[in-house]
Amino acid sequence: MSVAAKPSASSGRERLVETAYHLFSQRGFGAVSLADIAGEVGLTKQAIIYHFSNKNALYAEVLAQLAARFAAVIERVDRQEPDAEARWPCLMRAFLDHAEQWPDDSGLIARELLDNRDRAQDSHRWYLRDFLDALVERYAATARGREQDLTTQRVMVYRQLGAITYLVISEVTLGAIWGGEAVAEMQRVQRDLLQGDADPAAD
């Protein structure tokens, strides 16, 4: 499945968001300062504050764009595959395609879910909640999902999403450990599993 081409950062605001997106994905929210972002873009911190009141506001925009990309993948699969049973593996393959084309999205979602324990205590808006709820809803519509309670459905979705995300973000490290050919074979097997089973993580 094709995914949308990455937009070019034409305006100063867009360049800030794109730069922040890459840095937050690579380092996490806590390890990136406005000065870091300003230095990468060649602007001052004051220029960033002109567009975004603080780092939280800039991060929120990055997450909002991430959530919009994920929502677009779900909407596209919903249009192409109306059958609930067939839709789930199609959806997981679509997210694998997306993760491979947008590896920084995978890094960002991993860091948002794992690295933000301190920020999580004070956060009042979770941009990924609608995305996660939408995945659970679609998994729950499968025959296997209908047999499970909500907690189990969430666990199965999280396991599957984690498998896709972590293989993508750990490609370089695994390549150093086992070699590039081994990682390519792992990616092939993962794609085959997604092709052949609505929920390979459940077995």
Folded structure, characterized:
The chain is mainly α. It has helices at 12-27, 34-41, 45-51, 55-80, 84-101, 103-114, 117-120, 129-140, 143-146, 150-169, 171-178, 180-196. The protein is 75% helix and 0% strand. Mean pLDDT is 88; it is low at 1-9 and 198-203.
Keywords:
disordered C terminus, 203 residues, mainly alpha, 0% strand, disordered N terminus
Write the layout of secondary structure elements.
Elements: H1 12-27, H2 34-41, H3 45-51, H4 55-80, H5 84-101, H6 103-114, H7 117-120, H8 129-140, H9 143-146, H10 150-169, H11 171-178, H12 180-196
Helix coverage percent: over 70%
Order of helices and strands: HHHHHHHHHHHH
User: Rg, please?
Assistant: 18 Å
Shape: globular
Fraction of residues in β-strands: under 5%
Offer a quick outline of the entry.
The protein has twelve helices and no strands. With 203 residues, the chain is mostly helical. It has a domain of 136 residues.
